[in-house]
Amino acid sequence: MKNELPDDIEQLKAMLRQQQARLRQYASQVAGYEQEIERLKAQLDKLRRMLFGQSSEKKRHKLENQIRQAEKRLSELENRLNTARSYLEDAAAVTESPEASHLPESPVADSPVAARRKSSRKPLPAELPRETHRLLPAETACPACGGELKVMGETISEQLEIINSAFKVIETVRPKLACSRCDVIVQAPLPPKPIERSYASPGLLARILVSKYCEHIPL
To answer: Which residues does the annotated region (Disordered) include (predicted)?
Structure first.
């Protein structure tokens, strides 16, 4: 049965704002889980190194308990992350339409999958207006040895945004900083995306959903 939708434009705008807020909420959850998972993985690596070099039976037992607790928490967070990603994919399923699929995929930077797909990616048009955000890592000194960090490069990712039915590109620049004493490299984490490997921003996805399901405008 077809849903009854309001004819009032203000009500439709309110529905659009609700959808945007929902997508941002899911994206925020995904980002939070990803950051906590990375923190736990680093903690586990540290505990395992400590366990490997520990000769005291009492301390080994304590470290083993800490490792088990961290592994349990990591498993729980990974399950929650998968659920949150599933919500995002369901909310943005409209982008699977033939027209929406013309948006080029944007692999996660610095991953093996990204390296394999780089040759087939189509860049966003250079003539579109751009808004650049620079994200610096939280570390001001090397987290391993305290040495000075120097810029060694940067990673640039793009999202396609729509403002008052006009497109613009949100460009996120993340400098890579390398320690001058050791081989440690730090970089700010990539902001969450509603759909991995997609250029579409939360605002664009929300606009597509409202256009298709509320305003019944063909895509």
So the answer is: 92-131
Q: Are 145 and 184 in contact (CB under 8 A)?
A: yes
Region at 177 (left for phi over 0; alpha for psi -120 to 50; beta for the rest): beta
Angle between helices 9-52 and 202-209 (to 10 degrees): 140
Helix axes 9-52, 57-91, angle to 10 degrees: 160
Q: Collapsing DSSP states into helix, strand and coil, what is residue 217?
A: coil
pTM equals: 0.38
Closest by CA position to 167, among listed 128, 126, 207, 217: 128
Residue 127 has what pLDDT? 76
Which amino acid is it at 186? V
